[in-house]
Structures are given as C-alpha cells and as structure tokens.
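Re: Re: token formats

Sure, here are both.
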Amino acid sequence: MINVKLGKKRATRVRPGQKIADIVKHALPHSRYKPYVVIRNNSFGSFNEIINESTNISLLQHFHESSRRAYENAAILILYYVVENLFPDQRLLVMHSMCDGAFCRFVNENFCTDRVIQQIKAGFDKIVAADHAIEPILLSRNDARRYFKEIGQADTEELLKYCEANFVTLYHINGRRYWLLSPPAPRTGLIKIFDIMPYKKGFVLRCPTEGNERRLRHFTDQARLYEIFQETDNWGRILEISTVADVNRLIAENQISDVIKIADALQEKKIANLADQIAHDNERRFVFVAGPSSSGKTTFSKRLSIQLRVLGLKTQLLSLDNYFRDRAELTALQGGRLNFEVLDAIDLELFNDHLQRLLNGEIVTPPIYNFLTGVKSPGPKPIHADDKTIVIFEGIHGINPGLTPAINPKYKFEIYISALTHLNFDNMNRIHTHDTRLLRRMIRDFKYRGYSAADTIHMWKKVVEGEKKYIFTFQGNADAMFNSSLIYEHGVLKTPAVAILKNVPEEHHSYPEAQRLLDMLSNFLPVDDTEIPPTSIMREFIGNSSFSY
C-alpha cells in the first residue's frame, strides 16, 4: 500500500497501480473539482496517470488557465486524430491563437472547403461521444523519436532531437500517440463545448475561455491580427524557419547570427514604414502606442521617435503612467481597492486638458508619477508642440476611445503592439504569445524591479485579466499593428529564465507553472546575446540597451 494525500485531506492508503482518476473518485465522490488536469507532486499531470509511489495530489476548483489549457490540448488532439483518420494524405497545421481558439490550416490550403470542415466537425462529435480515454505514456526521448520517425512525423522527431529531457510523455488515443507540451484533459467526452468555424484559408478551433467551460464567447473577428500573423508566417517560410527545430538547427550550425541581424533589421524597416505613414499626414499630432504587458512598448516608442526625427520632425515621448490619479484619490474612487489597470486610474480631465492645450500651441508641464509615494507632481520639463512636433504616448490604454474623448481622431495615430510569436514546436503544438510575454516580464521584473519569478507568476493572472478587459477589446481600433516578437528570442530568454525559475520554492503555489515553463524551455537551444543590437526590443528585457528607461 502507498500513501496518497488529496489536497488538505489526510493521506489515504491505496494499492499501487491505480489511476489518479479512480483514486479521486473513490476518496472524494461528492467533491466539486474541474476534471481536466491535476497537480501531482507540484507539477501538472493527467488524471490518467498511474500511481506507484506515495504522492501528493491537488485538485483545481475553477476553470482557469491551467484547466482551460488542458481542455484545448485535448480538443487539438481530437482534431488531429480525426483529420488523420479522415484525410491521411493531408497535413494539418495548428498555427496560432485567434478568436478564442487556434487558427488551423492545411498545407494544401485549397483543400479546406466547407464540406471538409463539416466532415471534421462530424468526426469530432463522434470521438467526443465515444468518450475515449487519453492515456499518458512515458518513453525515452530516443524511443519517442523512433516512433515519430516510423510514422513519418518528421516535425516532432526533429523537435525531440534537441530536447534536453531524457524522457518525454506522449498521449495516446486508440493506439495513436501524440506529443503535447502539457497534459490534455483525460477523456474525449469532456470536450463537449467547441466549434470549428471556417476562417480565411483555414478554420478556427474554438474552446471556452477561462471562467466558464459551459459556453463559447461571442465570436469577434480579428482580421488585422490574422494579417499580422500571416505576414510573419510568410516571412518565416521565406527564411525556412517555421518551427523551434528550425531555429535550433541554425543555432547548432552556428548560423543564428544572420537570423538575429535579419530579424532586427526587419523590425527597424517596419518602424520606419510606420514613421513614413505618420509623417505623410500633416494633421497627425499625437501617436498612441498601446499593447499588453511586455510587448516592448517603451523601446518601440523610442525607436519610432528616432525614425520620425530622421524625417525632419520633432518628437516628445511621454508615458501615460505619469497621468495616474494620486493613490489617495484612486483608492477613494475605487472604494478602498487599488487597481491601476482600469481606465479611470488615469486623470482623464488633466490628460485631455493637456492634449487640447498642446493642440492650441500652448506650453504644458507633463506630470511625473512617484509610485513610492503614490503622488504625481509637475515634471521638470515644460513642452510645446508645434505643427512639426509629434507627441508619442505609451501606455496600456492608448487605443481605448475613452482615453481621449475631447480630441478629434484626425489628430491621432494609434498603434497596437504585441509579441505575436509565429513559431510552432511542431505542426500540432504552437507557442503561446501569452508564454512569450510572461518570460519577458519575468526576466525584466527580476533584473530591474526586484521581483522573483514566483512573484511575477503570481501576479500574472491579474495582469492578463486586465489586458482582456482593457486592451484586447480595443485592438481593432488601431490604425496600425506592430509585431514585436523576434524569431530567435526564446533561445536568448532561456538562460536567464531558467536560472530564476529554478529558484521558485517547491512549496510556492507558482511552482507548477514554473515547472511548465521550464519544460517548455527545455526544447530550445540557448542563444548568446552578444550580437543583439543595443537598440533591439529584446534589450528592454535582458539588459544592455543603449536606451534609458
């Protein structure tokens, strides 16, 4: 007999060789928990894992990010299984996040007709109704590579070639095995709420979002976001870099130097094109740069300022953070709480007054906000903006129409920026933009703000919730979008991220997420940062930028 401790419940004696699902069902028959993923010994695991040693098990009570991830992983696995059985001669690619789901396309884009999508949906429904178990199986990395080589899945075989782990977990359904970065839900019958809807040259596999697994959110088209992803994907195909294995191969062959130069040069060219677009319209006076956390807004704004000055314009760079209401006022306004993520945290009256006065040719003195005291005071430098001056504001609410109700839109140019990673691990597993930004934020917080990786992971959930409410909703309002991701960046982020993630205490509630990120990073070869330009967006996070922040 072995001991199994279920959360705060006293340890239960059970026979070895049982599945976690069976142990939980017997010990807690009436417990309300989300049956998608379990935390076993402080790491995410499958309910179908077999227990052969004393184990601590934690159950998740809410449909938050980890449960939602397991739900979507199972949906993608079902999708792949269905497509392989229906269309064995076609190759499906799970490309990137889109419209509360994953955008997918076939290599042969002309194959994706409405009739094909209906066949896929019908096949998906059958697999859900059959309620197949999705079983984990632990293999040596070499055995897993041999399996994927035998079935002709070169993308996954090549990925595992560079993986640091000696053993990998695959998940199988009816004998077919799949590699997933993190565990899927344990049974196909759990994936009852989904949609497969035609979109552009493919389709979107949609799943419920955090908070409610019983319904899909209203569909919101993200055409401009799709265009940015497509542009980045096309550029990657030209360079023959579409997967993590492609980047790892270039690192192993000492060819990553050229990729670094090309990636940063491409971003500089796009920033220059945006400057041309702004300068072309003589009425533009204010540029607003908005985007989610760790998108590189500050460095982007500084580089845009340089490109505008190349065109003969004068620039002023200002942060919306300096217009926050005093802490005492904000606390009173929010009924004792303190939330800087909401639009009302900004002193909108003062901000719009300053904008109007600048338009009138007057001199204003922008404030400086002291986060230690929670008080803003007049800054040291009055500014004046004539018709040859562009004032650039950087902040999360920059494209929210409620920010500048008193300003005619003709005077504004709004830019949405985010790190929209186009790389995939293999044809089935994409890199989430969410994870890329978390790694950036974690390294910057540790290096410049004194936060540990555990601290950043802990606060990240609230950051993301704020972004969904106050940033993503308005991304379609922007005049332009800019993708700040760099094709080589995960290799650069790996070394500093691993160092701080390994220091997350095992007893800390952020530990399972830290382990997930470490597992993710184990698939990347490290990249030395010496060749990264001092003006690169990457320098905002890893240090040694030529800009001051």
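Second one below.
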Amino acid sequence: MRFKKTDIFSPVNIILIVANLVMINAISSNIFGRLDLTENRMYTLSSVTREILRELDEPLTIKAYFTKDLPAPYNNIARYVEDQLAEMKAQSKGHFRYEFLDPADEEELKKEAEKFRLEPIQVNVMRADKVEFKLAYLGMVLIYEDKEEVIPTIQSLENLEYEIVSKIRRITSDEAQTVGFLDGHEEAKLREEMTGLDRELRKLYELKPVNLSTRYTVPEDIDLLCVIGPKQDIPEKDRFAIDQFLMRGGKLLLAINKVKAELSQMQADRGPLRIDPWTENYGFRIKDQLAVDSKAPTLPFQIMGRYGRQITLVHYPLFPEVVNFNRDIAALKVLRQVRFYFPSPIDTTLAANLDSVGITPLFWTSGKSAIQSQPFDINPLTQRGKYTFDMANLPLGALLMGKFTSFWKDKSVPKDDEGNPVTDEEIIPQSPETRIVVIGDANFIQDAYIVQGLDNLTLMLNLVDWLMQDERLISIRSREVSSRPIGEVSDATRRTVKYANLLIPPLLVIGFGLVRWSVRKSRKKLAWDFKTAGGRK
C-alpha cells in the first residue's frame, strides 16, 4: 500500500502528534539538564551541593517570595532561582521542598513575608514611555524543624548556590562554630572596616570580639582566633592567653602589618609590634621590611605639578599582585589574583629547627621581586627605576601545622598590673595537632582596599573555612572567582604581540582583496576565452 502525503494530516494523526508533544513536554519538565560550558561549571550544581542535599534527615522547606511580571533583569533572577530550586529538589531524596509565592496582591502572604523579615524593594518599571515605581519581593526563607534562615533579597545570581547551601549547612548544623576576633589593640573592626568579611562569615559562623583587657584567657567557645592588624603592641599577658588558647588546640589566623605605612602622608616606619621572639617560638617571623614586586598595578595618584594638582598614572610595586598560590591547599586551588598593600615577607626558615612543626608557604611574589628596608620610601614618584627586582618568590603567607611548644614552657606565668600572676592554673606546655596561618599584610581584607574582580575576600573566607574544617563549601564559593590575570611575558614577547596586532589585521584584509581580485580576473579571462571560442565555432 502506498503512503499518501495527506495521511499525516488526518484527524487521528494530528491528535496523536499533539498527544506525543504534550507527553514529551510533561516528561521533560521533570528532567533537568544543562549544557554548561563555563570554566568552573557555574551553572551546574556541584557534587558538594548534591551531597549536602542527600544528607538531609528531616524535611527542609524553602519559601521563595517573588513578585511576578517584573521587568528585566529581575524577571531573569526569578526564573533562575526557580530553576535552581527545582534542580535541588530533583537531586535530594525527597526531604527538599520549595514554594514560589507572590505576596503582591495577597495580604496574608504579605504578613507572612513580614514575619520572616522580608521587605520589598523598589524597582523601576517602564510603561507607556514612563518610569513607574513598583514594590517587589525578591527573597526567601529556609525552614528546618523549628529553625529559620532568611535571604532577604536576591538581586544578583553570583554566589546564589553558595548562599543557599551555606544557609542549609547553618540551619541543619547541631552546633554553631565561633570565630573570635582579637580586640583592644586598635585592630581593624569587623563592622566598621571589614563589613564584607563580616557579612559573609555570619552566614556560617558566630562572630565574637575577644578583648583580653579584663580577662586572661580566650573564651572556651572560640574555635578560631583571628588577629587582624593590631596597631598597638600586644602585651605579655594577652600573648600568654593566645599561647594557651593554641596549646588547648585552638587555631590561629594572624594578618599583621609590621610596617606602618600612611600613603596619604607619604610616610612609612616600623610598626609598634614587638612580637618576634614570641612568633619565632612557633616557627615564623614577619620581617620588618616591605615586599616589592614588578607585578603590580598602575594607579592614578594626585601630585603637585607646575599648574597645580594633577593626576598621573604610576606603576606602584609596593602593592604586589600575587598569582602564585600553593595549589595543594584546598583553600587556594582556584584563586586567580590577590592584591596586597605594603606587605612584609615572612621568614619561613625558623620552623626547620622545630621537630614537631612544619611550615608551608601559601602564596608568594613573582620572579621579579625586591625588598625595601628602613628608611622606607613609599612616594609614588620615586619608585620608578628604584629596584633591580633581582629576588624571587618572597612568601607573603604561610601555614604552620603540628604540635606547638608553649612560649612559656619552663617560664613563670605573666603578672598583671598589680604584680600578681594572671592565673593559678598550670601552664599547658604543648599543643595537640593544630594550625596557624600567618599573612604579612592586614590591609588586603579591609573595605578601603577591596577591589572588585580581585580575590582578596575569597582568599580570607576560604582560609577561615579551611581552618574551621568546612572545606566542602570552598569549592562552591571559589567557582565564582572572576579575576583572569594575564600571565607574565617577556618584553620581546610583548613587542611581538603588539606589532602582530598592528600588522596582521590589515595584511589579512589586503591579502583577501588580492585573492578576490585574482579570482575575479581569472573568471573574466575564462569568460572571454569561452566567448572567443564560441565565436569561432
């Protein structure tokens, strides 16, 4: 029997085709697939996220409050969030649920959103060539047993997976981990000078200031103690408290400025910290020098010229841009570029004298580096031609691991202002296995120095996670790293690339024109020959 083309348009066939399309659409709506060509697979759920979702023992509910019919780019955010939650649900074992709610026209939902501390934001809507303002909800709340975690507003897709997963980790964790920040010696303030770090750390940890002026021990609930940029010397009794915290197995992160630099005044001098004997006991020393690197930014500086104040661009090697990281450390695997500001190199040779402690450089300067010693000169106009850059790979960060010996072993307990021992307890002479991370710069994480596109904040957050043994989340956060520095090349290579960019494009155009002219000339000749031959016939 012959097949007729009109058979496909018969009523029965049309019904079958429509039914098949509906069925395929229904099946595909529950199948999640994505062709992700990004380097870090930013649009694919990580294996860590899938693992955490499968570990859920009790139902986790996410209520996403999103206003419908929003203009771009907010409509794309809502769509992406819904796709992300749907994929998370598909990857879980039935304990992950979500609801998409629009409180715009329902008073009950508005009251519910307010109960969860979700406030609408104002967005601009273009209608009939007029700009109108609309209140829109763009937040979500996570509910697990009797606990709640809130993401008040989602205005960017960056770090969305990390935002959600970190909230899940926090809400499902039985015990809260606490990060302490030493206070009382003019350290950088979390809520004033490091607001980005404060905001991100609070997603996972309890944060507490640790002021030792009225106590002689670091609180027992502190898991990690951070010492960020003290501008006064740390007295002996405070060092003793930190020492015994370390001996109890606590972890320590030190970010120290050994050189006090004031760029606004063009002055720099040795800082007030006198902690070298104390830190040398643990296997390291931050030098009273400045690390200088040819890999550094060109920045605008205001100077006094013949015609008053002028802006000039200056290559400033006192702000090294580090691209050399120890990739064996999980916290540093995918970092691209971190800029430091007046950093000091770290002497890593001292740990060789300690049997139970090992030291590992974390990151270091480029192959064209130098050191500036006292008297320091940080004037931008005097830096050109000042250095030979004959040094290489100066360590600016280091990790010490092992069993540390107390600085006060076989010594007397420090005394208070009244001459009494600060404690009656016996000195702990040695620590269990623990870690110290030391960085020769405290400016790099402060708000005044943070530059978008660099990985300064990611570096600090990853180190905290790693010290707190929450390494799994590092891989999610680090997928958002956006800095893509160009590797160092020689002057000859730069000149070759420069002239190639100048000459190759016009040569290609000329070459294309010559080839086309040659082809057209050949065609004309063939046409003429054919016409001539036909004429003879």
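The chain is about 30% helix and 25% strand. The chain has a mean pLDDT of 85.
- S.
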